[in-house]
Design brief:
It contains 14 helices and 22 strands. It is an alpha/beta fold. It has a six-stranded parallel β-sheet, sandwiched between helices.
């Protein structure tokens, strides 16, 4: 596919890198010559200098012949204008990154009136991700498929856990819960396991199951499922605003700390149900005074990755509650895995993943539509949901007879609203929702699971 990416910042670069790896013809537009030069030198892309909302620059980039134009600059208005102009001159599909909360209610109208295919708000997506995790605080991360009928949950196997030393083949016999462990991270090694795999304390495991079975599994292995009632947030930016609105609707007590008086005044106006503290969120004295030791969840959402990491590491020593940090830089992943911080949220990665999912669905022509894509284990493994089309080659055959690629699992099948954790005798039917977990990034259609 021919794709034009406007904006070469954090999100734009992440998108360009992934789209280039997947074999797309990518043109990047930006006014920063140094950033453009790096993308052109490091990635297999073409760079165009200029304003991405200019019709002349869009024509130079080939937008009139593009399958997709993605506008991901730091300006919402530039992104919207670029998409409108690109659509008018012939681009087939357009995606705009829009971050301003004031535009949130208008997103549906924007898509309909301006012909924008997809509008993405990274901060709102990050807030939704955090809100989902807080509903299941024992998990490091929780994603969903098939309209919430399948959970994909990450947890850490504690030392002396009932899972420590257990082969996966004995899991159901021991605990009588229908879950499937689809990926295991042990140190720097990542495994798509089979039944002979033996779990160890310290492993990070990813399981798929129905929500009811997920809760049963947590109870069986002794993980508390306490409800989060109070949340302390440091940083009063857009993610905090969106998150506080979501949490207040769930009847949680929300406290936000920010050092900027104007920000605090604005939050007081927009979030009358939250408690807003104007002060230095990096001050140990202030955090103790505001109840960090008693809070059910602590979330670091400042604009600096380093600050969020340090705050979260400190919080992990002071509270038994859930600790979450916003971190965009991938290079910090190794530090975080041994820091005590269980959950890390990256708006950049969430945005890039959602757009990559859209691109793969566009490219799909075989007949099994991709519905959802989640990246797990530090982006080394993909979990993909497909709606099975009538022409798929996997229909009707027992899974044990499918000649599938290595490092791949059929993680779940949803049929007529019922979640199936499959065994070798199960099969796939037209209309099913099927979740595939794979260490390869070459799964674009359900039939790609076959050798």
């Amino acid at each position: 596919m021919k794709i034009v990416v406007i904006g070469n910042g954090k999100v734009g670069y992440a998108l360009t890198e992934q789209l280039s790896k997947e074999g797309h013809d990518v043109v990047v537009v930006d006014k920063n010559t140094a950033a453009l030069r790096q993308s052109v030198n490091v990635l297999d892309v073409i760079g165009i200098y200029g304003n991405g909302a200019s019709i002349d620059v869009l024509r130079e980039a080939g937008a009139e012949r593009a399958d997709l134009v993605i506008a991901a600059t730091s300006s919402d208005e530039v992104n919207l204008l670029a998409c409108i102009t690109a659509k008018k001159i012939g681009a087939h599909h357009t995606i705009a990154r829009v971050r301003n909360p004031e535009y949130t209610r208008q997103l549906g109208i924007m898509k309909e009136v301006f012909g924008i295919s997809l509008v993405i708000n990274p901060e709102q997506a990050a807030a939704a991700e955090i809100s989902r995790v807080l509903r299941f605080p024992s998990a490091s991360k929780i994603d969903s498929f098939a309209k919430g009928r399948v959970d994909l949950v990450e947890i850490r196997v504690a030392e002396r856990s009932p899972l420590d030393g257990m082969p996966l083949s004995a899991l159901y016999q021991k605990h009588q819960v229908k879950v499937l462990i689809v990926a295991v991270q042990r140190g720097n090694d990542v495994t798509i396991p089979d039944g002979s795999f033996v779990l160890r304390g310290g492993d990070r495991i990813h399981i798929t199951a129905s929500p009811a079975e997920t809760e049963g599994f947590f109870r069986a292995i002794g993980l508390a499922s306490h409800k989060v009632r109070s949340v302390l947030i440091v940083g009063g930016g857009r993610i905090s605003f969106y998150l506080a609105k979501m949490l207040l609707e769930l009847n949680m007590r929300v406290k936000i700390v920010d050092i900027n008086r104007a920000t605090c005044d604005k939050l007081c106006e927009l979030l009358p149900g939250a408690e807003i503290i104007c002060g230095d969120g990096t001050s140990e004295e202030l955090l103790l005074e505001e109840g960090i030791e008693r809070t059910d969840a602590f979330i670091a959402l400042t604009n600096m990755d380093e600050e969020n990491i340090i705050l979260s590491m400190y919080a992990a020593t002071r509270t038994q509650g859930k600790v979450i940090a916003k971190v965009n830089r991938i290079s910090f992943t190794g530090i975080l895995s041994n820091s005590g911080i269980e959950t890390v949220i990256s708006p950049k990665n969430l945005t890039a993943t959602r757009i990559i999912r859209y691109v793969r669905a566009l490219r799909n022509s075989i007949g099994s539509k991709m519905e959802t894509l989640h990246r797990i284990v530090n982006d080394q493994v993909e979990a993909l949901e497909f709606r099975v089309g009538e022409r798929s080659r996997v229909i009707g055959k027992p899974l044990s007879e499918l000649n599938t690629k290595p490092n791949l699992l059929v993680a779940s099948i949803v049929r007529h609203g019922k979640t199936i954790i499959p065994g070798g005798s199960d099969h796939i039917e037209k209309g099913d929702s099927v979740v595939i977990v794979s260490a390869s990034r070459q799964i674009h259609d359900l039939d790609d699971i076959l050798r």
